[in-house]
Design a protein that fits this description.
It is a single chain. The protein has about 190 residues and is of the alpha+beta class. The strands form three sheets. Strands 2-3-4-7-8 form a five-stranded antiparallel sheet, with helices on both faces. A two-stranded parallel ribbon has the order 1-9. Strand 5 and strand 6 form a beta hairpin. The protein contains four helices and nine strands.
Amino acid sequence: MILPIYAYGQPVLRERAAEVEADSPELQALVDDMIETMHAANGVGLAAPQVGRALRLFVADLSPYADELAEAAGGEVPAWAEAPLVFINPVLTLDEACDEVDVEEGCLSIPDLRETVWRPDGVTVRYLDRQFQEQELPAVGHLARVIQHEADHLDGVLYLDHLSPLRRRLLQRRLKAIARGDAEADYELAFAAP
């Protein structure tokens, strides 16, 4: 089922999400719904708070970038790029050896707004996969950025929080418009109650 995506201004986007305690049919249904919602919105990542659930869970799917990723990996598509990834209770360790890079980011919860954000180009994430098996994934480049962006959502952090105070002030009018429901997207948005 395609879920509405919670827009900027929704309180759940600023909450620290709770650990997922156990697997359940409801959790697996939520994962399915999040993947379907992410695909319907043409996103590459989606965190549970973005669909109104304050849980430490996000999904990512970089398969649309398979050719680009294969080129960066020397011609072979990385295994993780072939299907949606499910990250439950992720813990990130930034790669101190990697440089910070600036890349333009957007967010399904903040439609029609993209800004340049500096992030480390490498990260290692420890997490439970969909089968509740412990995994560790070193990531660089685009995958590292998606993981960091989605993991931020689990701590109530938006990519806008990485901008300078001056830049955030300049965006206030647009952000207030989104918060009051004055925004459109090619997917259903859920706005905070006035």
